[in-house]
Amino acid sequence: MALNPIYFEFFVVCLGIALILLESTRKKRNQALVAWIGVGGLILVLLSVFIYDSQSTGISPFYTSDRLALFYKQLILVATIIVLLMSLPYARTIAGGGVPNGKIGMAEFFILPIFACAGMMWLVSASDLIFLFVTLELVTVTFYVLVAYIRNDALCLEAGVKYFVLGAFSTGFLVYGISWIFGVTGQTSFENISLSLQTLPASAHPALLFGLGLFLVGLGFKIGAFPFQFWVPDVYQGAATPVTAYLSVASKAAGFVVLLRIAEVFSPALQTKIIGILSILAGLTVLFGNLAALVQTNLKRLLAYSSIAHAGFLLMGVASLTVPFASKAVSFYLSGYLLMTLLAFFVVVMVARETGGEKMTNFRGLGKRSPLLAMSMVFSMLSLAGIPLTVGFFGKFLIFMVAIQAHQWILVGLGALGVCCGFYYYFKIIGVMYWQAPPSDVGAIKISTDTAIVLVVLSISIIVFGICPQFILAWI
Question: What is the 3-state secondary structure (H, E, C) of 21-64?
């Protein structure tokens, strides 16, 4: 009997509930054990998703388990596992950030990403606007808590308030857009909307475009696209670094799956207008993200603007959906982005734990203080910049390939300008690590065995998948 794919999310939710009960009933609390059990449980779910080979899409009217959904479930599970591992060395930073009684409350910091993971797994399988909205809010509310988790840190609370207020504002646009789409088509299911569009009179297109525009405003906030990106730098800087990494990778991946599905639903009837809107968003996002990153001195803010820039490159792929390979190019890019971004944030966690800061100056002489951390950051920066023989290069190559095939010449030009800007600010970080002397009052940075293993695996993956991209392409 084949495994019902709905059980994947069910298992993840049960894992989170079991960890809450375990933590609340144990007399001697060991928060690290909670994280390790969470990692083990998610690995089992990940293996289950890998061996599941059904292409069934008729499980329910609002849930699909097609190849796209399964791939992104795997991606989200991998991201959650790495973020939990990243949270272990970050526990001391949170305890020093004002949480009373040492590590009290750290277990919840490990458990909340598991519930966010379940929400994003549901989100990538959503084939109905109402179900999509409910799962999106489950993810967003969980992130509201995680962003403001260090409750005695003013910067963290500021980030939480900004994220909550702007998130609630964007949700209003999203719901209003859904109501307009339903009002025009009379449907909320993606399949039924697509069928309804075939008989929809041209006079109804303006109202449909208005609803779709409102929906894209709400979704643009989630993925950090220009001009809805104003929350990204402050939230990325103020939130705990593992939360920032999770927002940057898993949340963005889930948002782009939704965008791919929506674009495919509406493209047959409104293809030219949708591509025009997405092209404008892509060009502005690439340009703004890269130019703003040039002047940053705080590494988390730099990575925040870098995240905006990469959202622009991904939008280039979505805007080229007339090319059949475009969705695969976007999926490959997101896979590589997961590896290189999580590796960069892992290094930031370790350096910030030792130096107490995330500014560029905290990375001076890192090559001498910790060769492994410095080399890991080098692999990450080279891949983010798109240097050949890295997974980031091949991801950009695929995006530019589909954009050229779709004749998006302006986007190709803006993308090339963005890549040139990226060379400057990514290589600037490498220069600080190797060509500036470390402060005289600091010593070597100690790394635990499990952290070293994760760093090495991520670094090797960036090179292996850059040289042999067919592994990820076959996976997709």
Answer: HHHHHCCCCCHHHHHHHHHHHHHHHHHHHHHCCCCCCCCECCEC
pLDDT tens digits along 243-292: 888 988 888 888 888 888 888 887 666 777 888 888 899 999 999 999 99
Helix/strand/coil (H/E/C) assignment for every residue in the chain: CCCCCHHHHHHHHHHHHHHHHHHHHCCCCCHHHHHHHHHHHHHHHHHHHHHCCCCCCCCECCECCCHHHHHHHHHHHHHHHHHHHHHHHHHHHHHHCCCCCCCCCHHHHHHHHHHHHHHHHHHHCECEHHHHHHHHHHHHHHHHHHHCCCCCCHHHHHHHHHHHHHHHHHHHHHHHHHHHHHHHHCCCEHHHHHHHHHCCCHHHHHHHHHHHHHHHHHHHHHHCCCCCCCCHHHHHHHCCHHHHHHHHHHHHHHHHHHHHHHHHHHHHHHHHHHHHHHHHHHHHHHHHHHHHHCCCCEHHHHHHHHHHHHHHHHHHHHCCCCCCCHHHHHHHHHHHHHHHHHHHHHHHHHHHHHHCCCEHHHHCCHHHHCHHHHHHHHHHHHHHHCCCCCHHHHHHHHHHHHHHHCCCHHHHHHHHHHHHHHHHHHHHHHHHHHHCCCCCCCCCCCCCHHHHHHHHHHHHHHHHHHHCCHHHHHHC
Does position 379 have pLDDT exceeding 90, yes or no?
yes
Please, are residues 350 and 358 in contact by the beta-carbon 8 Å criterion?
no
Q: How far, in Å, CA of 206 to CA of 194, rounded?
A: 17
| Spatial CB neighbours of 33, under 8 Å, sequence gap ≥ 6 | none
Query: Residue 457's pLDDT is what?
Result: 92
Give the residue from 374, 376, 375, 398 showing the smallest Cα distance to 386: 398
- Chain position carrying tokens 């990325």: 236
Q: Domain coordinates of the chain in residue numbers? A: 6-475
Cα dist. 364→267, 431, 435 in Å? 49, 9, 8
As a whole number of angstroms, the distance between CA 280 and CA 61 comes to 33
pTM of the model: 0.89
Token duo for residue 67: 């190849």
